[in-house]
Design a protein that fits this description.
The chain is about 45% helix and about 15% strand. By secondary structure, it is of the alpha/beta class. It folds into three domains: about 5-90 and about 300-325, Rossmann fold; about 90-210, NadA-like (Rossmann fold); about 220-295, 3-Layer(aba) Sandwich (Rossmann fold). The strands form three sheets. It has a five-stranded mixed beta sheet, sandwiched between helices. Strands 6-5-7-9-8 form a five-stranded parallel beta sheet, sandwiched between helices. α7 (about 125-130) links the parallel β5 and β6 (about 135-140).
């Protein structure tokens, strides 16, 4: 299918469906897809949007699968579709429910004062596990608030699956390094002994986003500072703590956008996150700011959502090929953890 044909199909279906269909698009999507999105945002913004949509019967999620699952859970009673059901997330795949359950049982054998918390970049089953155990979901935009909420009700946080976001957030809360430990699912009992679990305030799952680590590094920050004296650098908090420390700021995609809004005309900034978003910001701000990528990093799973696949999805709304469904019990439990997230103030 050629691009112009795909655009014609999308335009036609959007006109026919009107307010009965909403297309949601993540910032990491390509420009040719996002131009058809009714709403663009980061994970937190899209979760909030999905939870309040009333008129639409159909949601089409241009992002990765865990995001579409989240939309299904929050937008109860609506039909949710994704243009490629194989658009996954390597980070989410690093936390398997059977491994997390084993870790939880081991941790709870040492302490009964633990809140399970999952990054939104996780499967519906992991979110359900958190909901079933009075836990919470967070995004990179509200991780600090979710940590604060968790530590206000229990002594410890068991955070999965992104160790970098977890450690960066713990540091932001001034939690000492010796009170932060890592559960390694590849080792017996996570590689931890009772005393370590008992003493810790934060237990991190060993997982990471391959877009943001290890290619974003202190070295890449130092290199771009050398090449562009005076440049400001902001990175996503999925980057490792050493990279965050070397940068001027860190933040979610929405927070990165807000950071640029506060810069002065003529300033330069390097951004450490997925390249599609950085390229779009460079185009949008080219007349007042110099916006550079810290490195060119693309998410191959986000790239699976194409204009042609979006057109095929909209042509197949009467079929289940692109439809997203979550088991009722899993959705019910996951909703508890997501609602805990949506209740906290940011």
């Amino acid at each position: 299918m050629k691009s112009n044909e795909a655009e014609s199909i999308i335009t036609k279906v959007k006109k026919e469906m009107g307010s009965r269909m909403v297309i949601l698009g993540h910032h990491y999507q390509s420009d040719d897809v996002l131009k058809f999105a009714d709403f663009i945002g980061d994970s937190l913004e899209l979760a909030r949007k999905a939870s309040v949509i009333e008129d639409a019967e159909v949601l089409v999620f241009c992002g990765v699968y865990f995001m579409a699952e989240t939309a299904f859970i929050l937008a109860q009673g609506k039909s949710v579709y994704i243009p490629d059901v194989d658009a996954g997330c390597p980070l989410a795949d690093m936390a398997r429910i059977e491994d997390v359950t084993h870790a939880w049982e081991r941790i709870c054998s040492v302490s009964d004062s633990v809140v399970p918390m999952t990054y939104v970049n996780s499967s519906a089953s992991i979110k359900a596990f958190c909901g079933e155990n009075d836990g919470i979901v967070c995004t990179s935009g509200n991780a600090y608030e979710a940590f604060a909420w968790s530590l206000s009700v229990k002594d410890k946080v068991f955070f999965m699956p992104d160790r970098n976001l977890g450690r960066n957030t713990a540091y932001k809360m001034n939690i000492a390094d010796d009170l932060i430990i890592q559960w390694d699912p590849g080792k017996p009992d996570g590689g931890l002994v009772d005393d370590e679990i008992a003493r810790a305030r934060v237990i991190l799952w060993k997982g990471w986003c391959p877009v943001h680590w290890p290619d974003f590094s202190r070295e890449s920050v130092e290199n771009i500072r050398r090449d562009h004296p005076g440049i400001k650098i902001i990175v996503h908090p999925e980057s490792d703590p050493d990279t965050v420390k070397a940068s001027d700021a860190s933040g979610s995609t929405a927070q990165i956008i807000e950071y640029l809004k506060g810069m002065k005309i003529g300033d330069s900034v390097a951004i450490g996150t997925e390249f599609n978003m950085v390229s779009r910001l460079s185009d949008n701000y080219h007349s007042i700011l110099m916006v550079l990528p810290l490195r060119k990093q693309l998410c191959s799973d986000m790239a699976k959502i194409t204009l042609e696949k979006l057109a095929l999805t909209l042509s197949s709304l009467d079929q289940d090929t692109y439809r997203v469904k979550v088991d009722d019990k899993i959705a019910q439990d996951a909703l508890k953890a997501l609602q805990n997230m949506l209740r906290i103030r940011t």
